[in-house]
Every structure is written in C-alpha cells, then in structure tokens.
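hi!! sorry for the late reply, been swamped w classes. u asked for the two structures so here they r. pasted raw, havent cleaned anything up. first the sequence of the first protein and right below it the tokens
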Amino acid sequence: MLNAWKIYMLAIISFLVGTSEFIISGILDKIADSLGVTLAAAGQLITIFSLVYAIGTPILMALTASLDRRKLMLYSLGLFVVANLLAFLLPGFGPFLFARIIMALGAGLVVVTALNIAAKLAPPDKQASSIATVVMGFTASLIIGVPLGRIMTDAFGWKSVFGGIALFGLIAMIVLFFTIPPTKGDKPVPLLRQLALLKKRKVALGLSITFFWLGGYSIAYTYLSPYLLSVSGISDSLLSTALLIFGIASLIGSKFGGYSTDRWGVSFTLIGGMALHIVMIIMLSIVTNSLMGVLTILTLWSFAAWSSGPTQQYHLATLEPESSGVMLGLNQSMMQLAMAAGAGIGGVAVEQVSLASITWIGATGVAIAMVIVLVLSSSSSSSKIAQSIKP
C-alpha cells in the first residue's frame, strides 16, 4: 500500500500520545516525592487527564470538523508538544497539573485526527487495518513507552520523559508537514447536533459497547499485578515477564482485529473476540499456581481483548459516515470514561468483596457488551431486509 509508511508514522505519533497519558502510573512515586505531594494527590493527575480528554475531545472535534485534517493534526500536535515542554520546564505541582490539562486537550485531538487521516489514506478494503495500525501504536505505549519512561526517569529524572516526548513530537510535526497531503475534513457538525447523535439508538448502543467492553477489561487489568501475585501465584521475579507477554499479545490482537474486520466483518470479529475475552478472564480465576497455564490464559485474554479495539473504532466510524470524526471523538471520550469507571468499580470490588472477584465482575461487563453487539447486529440485519423488500 502506497501510504502504508504514512500510516505507521501516525501510529508512532499515537505511541507518543499514549506514553504521555500512561507514563504517570509508571512514575507516580517519583512525581510525588519530587513535588512533595502524597501518592493520592499525584494520582489525581491521571483522573484530571482522563476527564479533560473525555469531555474536551468531542467538543474540540465538533468545533474543528471542517478544518483540513492535515492542518488540524499539525495544530493539535503543536499544542501537545507545548504542553509537554511546559511539563518539562515548569516547577511545582500546580503548573504541572495545568500542563497535563493542556496535554489532554492536545492528545485527544491528535489521536482522533490520526485515526481519521489513516482511514482516509487507506483504500476502502484496508480502512479497518489502517485504523488498527494507529490503535496498535497507542497500545504499544503501555508495553514499551511506560517501561522506557521508567528507565529514563531512573537515569535523568522524571521530567526528562516529557522533554523527550516534546522533542520527538516536534520532529513528527516536521515530517508530517512534508508528507501528509491536505485531507478534507468532515461536514461541520454543531456541538448541539453532535450531542444529538447520542439520541440515535444505534449510536447510543454503539458507544455503550465501548463502555462495557473496555470497562469490563479495566476492572481486571487495573489490578492485574496484585492479582497475579496474590491469586494466580506468579512469583515477583516473573511478574515483569508475564506483563510483557500480555503486552505483546495485545499488539498482535489489535492488528488481527483489523485484519479480521476487513476479511469477515464487524459482528463476527466483535462477538468472537468478546466471547474469547469472557472465557479467558474467567479461566484466570480458575487456573492458579501453574506458570504455563496462567501465561497461556494471559496471552489469549490480551489477544482477545484488544482484537475488539480497532474493530469498534471502525464500527462507530461507519455508523455515521458523514460524522466519522465526531464519532471517533465520542468513542475516545467513552474509552477514557470506561477506563476511569473500570478502575473505580475494581477498587470497590477489591475493598468490599475480594481481589479474586475482579475477573468475574470484569467478565460481566464484557458479556453485556457482547449482548449489545448482538442486539445492534440483529437490528441492522432487520433494517437491511426491510429496505430490500421495499417496492
């Protein structure tokens, strides 16, 4: 594919954005010590980022809907670079919190615009695969970006991470300026009409799939490390290996999800992936004190969970083709809210029930998502049949 390398460039940018979001959890103790705040206070940096990202992204996407995608990408990436530079230069907790707010606004625009451009650069039969590649870059930040950020923090201090992201972001802006062609934006969608999309049954159901799928996943994933140590019986020395395998499987699953969607369609990929997701997350609670058994389940769980990512992005973009940018923005917001809700519900479950309960509660969330997929798929099929028999 002629534009393949451009799409991989967008995936690298998605990787930078993902690293800027997820790195906080990897260096939380260093930030708290450096800024003289508690871990709980430092943890609010994650909450604030997710909320600003969730609320700000659809609003900004609506306001910039008609803007050329290339220009929007450069502007939003520029905002993201400035925010990381502020995080690197400004002292104190308050200024860093301010930088994180600006960073979240830029990050949401960058990711949604990258997904939008990737879909437009790809031929019709490769759109899902192209979206999967960009999603894969975001996913890779969990596996590669966070560990690298921890290494940089140990060597040069935690602020160096944001300085490095700003530098690479600036380089990416220069490359994009010379390589990405002007790309027409969507038809302008006023903010009220954007919110009105939520009144449409298929849109509301489509977004609820994201909420329950990723929320169910997050309930278990947020507490995966203590779960593996306390319930699964993985030794502390093997934990990093288990998490690395989990991460690699998520990359493969993300790529496979795009391929499967192009080859067999949205419904088959989502239902198949979620069914395997549910089975594996339940199996994790059954198989304990068997290293190979637990690693096999982790691999299949991660593969299944992330095979749904690009498929769901593509699915939502096709529900309202004239408002694909808005739909992708709403989905990004829903993903952030789902992760926040999953972490919160998981925390309550650990405190009020037990650590072992998170797999069953998480599986319930994914099961609800799968039922919604079936309902939406059935509704879509009935609509097509009705249209085909019209005189």
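now the second protein. again sequence first, tokens right under
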Amino acid sequence: DDGPGIPEAALNAALVRGVQLDSKGGGNGLGLAIVSDIVEAYGGRLEMANANSGLAVTIHLRRHG
C-alpha cells in the first residue's frame, strides 16, 4: 500500500465487513475482513500498522506438527 495509511483509531474498523475507509476506491470494504476471517480460521492473526508510506499488513500463522 502506498497511500496515507489508516488513522490509528480506525485500524479495527478496517476489519469490519462493509466498512470502506478509502473514499477514492470503488471497493466494497470486504478485502481485509475476509483475509482476517481466513487467517483466524487457521489459528493465526492479522497485524496492521502504518508504515513509512501506507499500511503494512502482516499475517502470523502457527506451524502445525
């Protein structure tokens, strides 16, 4: 992502289905919510943080076996 990032107070809202924080795009506010659901289904977690430019999303998965 090379945009301005997401205000810290709105980071959790980015994971709610249907919430679109970028008023420029034509999306539906589903992307990060779906990714978060999939990651959680596999026992992982999604971490978001504003980077030098834009938003950095890190997925943490546990190794099984």
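hope this helps!! also noticed smth abt the second:
The longest strand covers residues 45-50.
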